[in-house]
Amino acid sequence: MLKTVFLSACFLPNASGIYSQVQQGYKNQFRIYADDDYLNIRGSGTDKGYTGGLQLSYLFTGTHPYFLLNRILPRASAGAVNTYGISLGYVVFTPSDLSATAPIENDYPYSGAIMLDYGLQSFNPAKKYNFQSKITIGGMGPVSCARQFQVGLHKLIGAEIPQGWNNQLKNDILISLQFGAEKGIIQLGFFDGVAGGKINVGTLINNAEVYGNIRLGKITPYFNNLIAQNGSDGSAVSHYSRWQAYFFAKTGASAVASNALLEGGMILGKSNVYTADISHLNTYFNYGLTLVFHNFSVSLTQKAFSSLVKGLKSQETGNLSLFFSW
User: Fold this and answer.
1) DSSP readout, 175-235?
2) Helix H segments across the chain?
3) Distances (CA, A) of 146 to 29, 38, 99
């Protein structure tokens, strides 16, 4: 849900040869990423807690930085395979009782945010690790238009209209730096495993996370580059080599110091309505299926995670992501 990443650098011998080999595939990708608890395979969507999010992303590869920000983002080596990305997205939280007009204690608040991300994932294919970095800016509260979006959507589909948006957390400024790293643990032709960690610091969320991720099926090497994970080799002649199909699973734990979307902003001041007593240790388990054919990919994910608020039940939501590469 809220994301990623660590710093470092090292030298990669013969990096230019590796770079040219990996870069034969697609160099651009557009992604549509949609979370919603009604995508739950158990059929138990509720619009409670983390109710959904949407993100539009454009990814592109490159060998040379084009402006100052690219020059300071960490790389895995001098000849690393670098994938840059820019994303626009939003997230929405609601309490358990959508009919209540007053704030509900010991529950999620009405809260929403809109955010713009810019980041880099830098891969070292030879040594099988990457570094990730991301800068996020955005706004929370009424400025995010989360109320208008959710109420409008519920009217469109005939769902219950949330009545408590007058109590949403106040406007505030969100600025976040996210750093992380991943290392390959096992890599076979049909199976791979990766361990990773990430930290987030700023006015959005402050946390540290560790996780493990596995893939099983027809896959391209994980550390070739980010686009290749959801897009085949665009230069391949054989149809067989231009598709992927794999099962994936990811589990992790996060230690959380603060979360503005549940507690109120840090710059303009806390909200004067009730805010949640957050859980400072969160765990999750995600699993799903990815299908890739030529330049199109679809990924279906189920996400089970412990409550972000103390004393409440765990939650399960779903994700649908579409990828278009060229």
Assistant:
1) EEEEEEEEEEEEE-SSEEEEEEEEEEEESSEEEEEEEEEEEEEE---TTS-TGGGGS--TT
2) 15-22, 68-72, 146-157, 260-263
3) 27, 17, 17
pTM value? 0.85
Q: Report residue 19's pLDDT band, with 50, 70 and 90 as the boundaries.
A: very low
Chain segment 197-218, per-residue pLDDT in tens: 999 999 999 999 999 999 999 9
Report pLDDT for 238: 52
Contact 151, 185 (CB under 8 A): no
Strand-pairing partners, residue 209, are 198, 254
Domains of the chain: 15-325 (2.40.128.140)
Tokens of 284: 């999750």
Query: Are 167 and 102 a contacting pair, CB within 8 Å?
Result: yes
- Does 26 have pLDDT greater than 50? yes
